[in-house]
């Protein structure tokens, strides 16, 4: 019960479905607010005071307030039912990809992959995630790529979400990418790292200290600033089989992006391009190159996080679709490209650091979610922690123990 005007606090530690039921004998306006944003829950007018009103919605984890604005000092009755939920990797799985493309590879969402029973969960905080790819065949082609993207481009992306707080205790989230960019016609590649501000939907990067610079992403309906650095100055050539390790580390107040060439038999030199055999471009399997060390000022108590309990921070008017996951995936080259492969034969492994030892994640899914790039025709099999990638039809239920249909899984957050 609320007498007259007032505010009722609501703290959610999980994504939740929340049902609000309200009754009042006098006109009253009730709003749901989070931070500086507010939305109407119930508007009880003079003509409908005899009704019982209800509203239900899904809310991300966070702190909310229910504000009562009554015309008279009356008593309002409100009932709140909270149903905690989990992230659903299958939700609108093809929605943001043209004609049903997906980032394909190996990923952890903090959810076990047996969906025929109530879902078991885990949460991992770590300071290092490592992805290893062994590629024996790769060829991509897109006749109509986005601007500044090659027809023969493709990418191998190690993507993680980092969680932390600023000096005032405000929750911050940053999406980190360590990417191999391929030209599969010329058999060359380079490295690029990106940092995106996921602290709010469409948030911009503002201050970053590193070898890269802030860039403007304008390939969607809105512009967004992010941090980017490409390495080295020239393309590196490859011959297959190619084995590469990607590494993202957090140490103190620094984020390090690295790579290691485990196998690459191409060891020639051309006037316009370096190859893997020279100096810092990594000729030997023993050397790991951290090619960009980045600091985000005023970021405290941060770690790489995998959790199924909430999405990255959202607002009432802009929900978040970003997951706290870790993923090693194949996709288009850049700028939201979806591509098609004519050749692909690869294995992928994804690890995290636990007390100084690289461990497999407790479970794996065969697709990523946060990245814009995708593929149309790669199929996977995950066996004993290794993802085998081949040409074939997309099947996000591969390696998932489930009797449910994709349609059901896209619409049910409980995954039960």
Helix-strand blueprint:
Blueprint: E1 2-3, E2 6-12, E3 16-23, E4 28-34, E5 37-44, E6 52-59, E7 62-70, E8 75-84, E9 104-108, E10 124-126, E11 128-141, E12 153-165, E13 171-183, E14 188-197, E15 213-217, E16 224-237, E17 242-251, E18 254-263, E19 289-295, E20 300-306, E21 326-331, E22 338-354, E23 357-360, E24 365-367, E25 374-375, E26 378-383, E27 386-391, H1 406-411
Parallel strand pairs: 22-25
Antiparallel strand pairs: 1-8, 2-7, 3-6, 3-8, 4-5, 4-7, 9-21, 9-24, 10-20, 11-17, 11-22, 12-13, 12-20, 12-21, 13-14, 14-16, 15-16, 17-18, 18-19, 22-23, 22-27, 26-27
Describe the structure.
It is a single chain. The protein has 416 residues and is mainly beta. The protein folds into 2 domains: 2-84, Jelly Rolls (Sandwich), CATH 2.60.120.1050; 104-411, no CATH class. The protein is 1% helix and 51% strand. The protein contains 1 helix and 27 strands. The chain has one helix at residues 406-411, and strands at 2-3, 6-12, 16-23, 28-34, 37-44, 52-59, 62-70, 75-84, 104-108, 124-126, 128-141, 153-165, 171-183, 188-197, 213-217, 224-237, 242-251, 254-263, 289-295, 300-306, 326-331, 338-354, 357-360, 365-367, 374-375, 378-383, 386-391. Strands 9, 10, 12, 13, 14, 15, 16, 20, 21 and 24 form a 10-stranded antiparallel β-sheet that branches. Strands 11, 17, 18, 19, 22, 23, 25, 26 and 27 form a 9-stranded mixed β-sheet that branches. It has a 4-stranded antiparallel β-sheet with strand order 1-8-3-6, with no helix packed on it. The model is unreliable at 267-285 (pLDDT under 50).
